[in-house]
């Protein structure tokens, strides 16, 4: 006798709720279909469901996302870095208190107290036909951030080694919920032959028809739930083994919405507006925001981050503020609207030579006009770089581009061999945007504060 076991999953929604009611409608229909067939199915989320870019996630600190997962009938989840490092310690500790689904993240550990009540290293579930499924969750080890929030993420491979033998004893099938990224998923498939299925996320990769490495099935459904995923495992009860593995993703952007979910989102939006609607300051005059020009608000914000971090120099890109602020009351919602990014302040140490290279790169058209997506940035373009603590002399050449002539501090050129403490957005410590910053061996991140918290302080201090 053979039995089909089904998993339906989402990953990396990032609080982009445009498609969420479609997810719910599609999953509900599929669940009814499997129920009528007397087949087992589980609904799973692979993390980064929460993203404080959205007012609903911001107002409820992720708990509204948990309610949405409850209402949709999800069964299992793991956490992503947006749940893990964009919430204060207590907010994450209590994020899933009301969850009606099980949460597994085997490599998350509290550094201050017992593990959260919802935390399970592994989960055991069983199919209609008695097939035992062991589930383990893992998340990306961004300990430079996690440990500032009193969490620690143990190495994924060592964690798997710790649990895989016991899972194998207890389970017919082993499933990994991985918020590690495609490269890590592939390496796990090479190293751990006992893992039958990896449902992945984090790097927003879309595997339309899955991938198989060493008989381990790997799948993922992109980002923002434009696609959702389905896995079908066929278990042969006579052979006592999986005889077939299938996975695919489905584009749901054209599908019908679940009306009750739409009503819930509407209600949550109204409640979020009320929570975030408290006035922060009153403006007598509007505040201009320009992405490619120096403005008073960006200069003051850059000055604030320099002073707040006790840095020698600060630099912020003007594209970090998305819109103007009109005259009148400014609320937390307004501040969130113009600075929605889950970006933290940070400092790095750079030599004078390295800092000059960073300044030169910051004035290039390639960087200022870069349309960035990711690294915490939720805006449109990088924009003009604004500096505090240094003075930059530039000229415009015949090609129309602006070039750096000289960088001075307190009237003197930068010392090429001196080390300077530079404050900026943590965005620039990742990737290759500004290599000297990314490669700095001394980085300090400031959590749980976001740049918008410093923006609120700047507005109170200089514009109230």
How many individual helices? 15
Number of spatially distinct domains? 2
Structural class: alpha/beta
Low-confidence stretches: none
What is the β-strand count? 25
**What top-tier CATH class of the largest domain fits best?**
Alpha Beta
Rg (CA only) = 24 Å
Largest beta-sheet details: 7 strands, mixed
Mean of all residue-level pLDDT scores: 96
Order of strands in the sheet with most strands: 6-4-3-2-1-14-15
How much of the sequence lies in strands comes to 25-35%
Helical coverage, percent range: 25-40%
The CATH architecture of the largest domain would be 4-Layer Sandwich
CATH topology of the largest domain: Purple Acid Phosphatase, chain A, domain 2
Query: What overall form do the CA principal axes indicate?
Result: globular
The CATH H-level superfamily of the largest domain is Metallo-dependent phosphatases
CA distance, first residue to last residue: 73 Å
Looking at how many chains there are and whether they match, the oligomeric state comes to: single chain
